[in-house]
Amino acid sequence: MAEWFQDNGLLLGLALLDGLSSAGLIFLVAVGLNLVFGVLRIVNVAHGSLYAIGAYSAASIGIFAGSLGLPDWASIPALFLSAALVGAVLGPLIERFLLRRIYAQEEVVQLLVTFALFMILEDVQKLVWGVQPIENRVAMQLLGNTDVPFGADFIPYTNYQLFLLPGVAIVTLVGLAWFLRRTLTGRVIVAVTTDREAASAMGIDAAKIYLLTFTFGAMLAALGGALSSPTAALVPGIGAQTIVLSFAVVATAGLGRIEGAALTSLMMGLGRSIAVYFEPELEVVVPYIIMVLVLLVRPQGLFGVAETRRV
Amino acid sequence: MTTALTRREALTAGFGTVLLPATLSAQPAQKPAEFKIGVTTFLSGPASVFGVPSRKACEMLVEHINAAGGIAGVPVRPIFVDEGPGTDHLVGEFRRLVQSEGVQVMMSAISSGSCLACTPLATELKKVTILWDCGTQRIFEEAHYDYAFRTQGYGTSEILAPLLYLLKTKPNIRTVAVINQDYAWGRDSWELWKAGMDALKPGVRVVAEMFPRFGSTDFSTEITRLLALRPDVVLSTSWGGELVTLIRQSTERRLHERTTFVLPVAEASMQILGRTMPEGHVIGTRGDHWNNHPAPKDPALFNKFVGDYRQKFNEYPIYPCHHIAQALWALKAATEKAVAAKNGAWPSDAELAGAFRGLTFPTPTSTITLREDGQGLEDQIVGLSSFNDRFPFAVPKEMMLYPGAQVSAPVGQKSTDWLKSLKPDFVTTAGRSI
After folding, report:
1. What is the chain B residue with the closest CA to A21?
2. What is the mean predicted confidence (pLDDT) over B248-272?
3. Of A25, B243, B251, B343, which sits with the fewest C-beta atoms within 10 Å of its C-beta?
4. What radius of gyration do chain A's Cα atoms show?
5. Dmax over Cα atoms in chain A, in whole Å?
6. What is the pLDDT of residues B103-131, one digit of tens each?
7. Measured in whole angstroms, how far is the alpha carbon of residue B239 from the centre of its chain?
8. Can you give the pTM of this predicted structure?
9. What pLDDT digit, counting tens, does each position of A141-198 carry?
10. Between β-strands B129-131 and B148-150, what pairing exists: parallel, antiparallel or unpaired?
């Protein structure tokens, strides 16, 4: 074992750096889904569409800002602005006019409705942005590179992926933890997540909390998309890929548990990057292997609490 | 009201279903009021980056053909079907188009999986099926089809040509890594490359084989690994958004300064990459239809096709546009040949299929011959990425043309077996500079 680490220690170090960046993006999307799932108890398949629309909007706003002659640094606040816009516009629209009608329906109906919404939004993306890859990499180029020593060699990393993505994920995690535990609204959300009936019985306006939580979740999904947009070419279908991994994170983390989402995202991000170095064929399945292993030991998820079910 | 079906009626209906297509295909056909063709292409999903431009090219060319009197005097009407929902859906749509819509010819498909699923239907329904873009070598190497024809090259020639070019221009390579999409084309193309490379330059070491999930939007970990490994060559047959992302992320981290990229499907992404595409890397176009082709066979027709497409859609046509145009030109040539053979009468399905076999038809850049097994022989042009004043994106320089017949496995041989039998001196004898 010690010999293996001696031979592969440097590569493992690179894998850790890559994994942190990947985990940051996974966390941003999954934590929004986890919040929505925890409070609304709806498996929102359209969460992937919000991610994609966030990404497309960020690229469009960035390109528009560039065409206005705004300085390059404006592209970074543009990422956050687009996420806020997408969440603030689409979140209330979807919650108020669609989800509110199906809270009392069976889970399969909820699943079908959000899946239908996902399909509709996929087509909307194609109508608005077309099918050719779209990108705006100004934010990434602006932040430049850092050469990480690698033995006698060096490996160039973009500062965007090395610092900004993990940084935003950490700020989001700390901010969310503070919001949910230290503010009244946050505590109300936690109360609804923990016991919806008891919370409602104590006079909490569940409809308002649902709207607020869904909008916030939509913003987080859009933020994940917006932050991914400078690193990738945007094409139809990116939402579908994201949502599957996010579901795996939510199931592994436990319902409504943000620390669980953070730890799971880290495990999956690191697991995938280590697989790329040492066993690339396993890269795709590593997140799901982690999920299965965790659920075998803790069926309620890493941080989930076992619930008593009324019969 | 329902009526019970007797056993005799059921048997009659069953035999009728089986025998009717065969009977109909042998019947003399009436000249139709319109020539309906079913076209399968990607209108959704990541591969719509190919499917939508090819649909636009098809519609534009059909307009031109109809304005000039149609095919053998019959106006053409394409009916498009989306490949996006998957092969099960596509097979159902294929049957619907033939049996309900009454299309006379099918043009299918972009995806190799779609072609593998649909081509057997050509035999079952006895309907001429033009394979207009898919590249899998398995189609004509694993089965014989009387009604299916591929009007462009295929994976073997499209991979062998860049390999030959690489070995000729950079004969001292020692290590290679691959990063391909994890699906049939990504895996098959690597198998072809590996078989050819081991035969043409034994001893080249494969330092990494990476097949990221189809549709990946982040290759930063794979790029870090490649930066650490420093292979002489990185092969990627990826396309669409994934190729754009791979190249962007690679150039930002200066991977292109440490290695030579070989990108057999690069052409379709060059307009999106623009000036970001690094110079001096091996690029291919799955054919010979580069926008800067130095000597197309029919320059006027080539410039008209490219110019009309640009004027109408404000972009240059990419290779699937040329491939679907080739399918239409082949259809026109075969139909006119079959009609002429019948002194102006409209051909049956079997007669039309007969006209396709061995057909040689002109394209703006060359002529393509369909072999006896149905495979088209399309020339391949490969070059090094470069920039000039004419195009705002990379085009090849120092081009080599590899004739289709030279870089295709002979009829009856499996591609991998043939590639393994190649000798190193083939690198110096194959192809010519243009």
Report:
1. B220
2. 94
3. B343
4. 20
5. 66
6. 999 999 998 888 999 999 999 999 999 99
7. 13
8. 0.84
9. 899 999 999 888 899 999 999 999 999 999 999 999 999 889 999 899 888 877 778 8
10. parallel
Taking CA atoms, A21 is separated from B89, B181, B254, in Å, by: 38, 22, 19
Domain B15-21+33-153+299-370, CATH class in plain words: alpha beta
Asked whether A258 and A175 are in contact (CB, 8 A), the reply is no
The CATH number assigned to the domain with range B156-285+379-433 reads 3.40.50.2300
Q: Mutation test of the interface with chain A: which of B220, B249, B256, B259, choosing the one with the most A Cβ atoms within 10 A?
A: B220
| Whether A137 contacts chain B with CB within 8 A | yes
Structure token pair of residue A194: 């923990």
- 3-state secondary structure at position B216: coil
Least Cα separation, residue A143 to chain B (angstroms): 11
* Per-residue tokens: A30: 């999954």
CB contact under 8 A, B245 and A15: no
- Any residues with CB less than 8 A from the CB of A187 and at least 6 apart, and which? A180, A181
Tokens standing for B101?
């819509």
- Decide: helix, strand or coil at residue B140: helix
Residue B185's nearest CA partner among B141, B134, B254 is B134
Cβ within 8 Å, pair B252-A153: no
**Domain residue spans of chain A:** 23-233
Q: What is the ipTM of this complex?
A: 0.85
Where b means 16+ CB within 10 Å and e means fewer, A12-50 reads: bebbebbbbbbbbbbbbbbbbbbbbbbbbbbbbbbbbbb
B15-21+33-153+299-370 and B156-285+379-433: identical CATH topology = yes
Q: What is the pLDDT of residues B359-403, one digit of tens each?
A: 999 999 999 999 999 999 999 999 999 999 999 999 999 999 999
- Looking at beta carbons, which residues of chain B come within 8 Å of A272? 221
pLDDT in tens, B280-304: 999 999 999 998 999 999 999 999 9
What DSSP string describes B218-280?
--HHHHHHHHHH--SEEE----HHHHHHHHHHHHHTTGGGTSEEEETTTHHHHHHHGGGSPSS
* B306 SS3 class: helix
Q: What is the pLDDT of residue B183?
A: 85
The H or E element spanning position B9 is helix B7-26
Residues in A closer than 8 angstroms to B268, CB to CB, are none
Residue from the list B45, B220, B241 with its beta carbon closest to the beta carbon of A161: B220
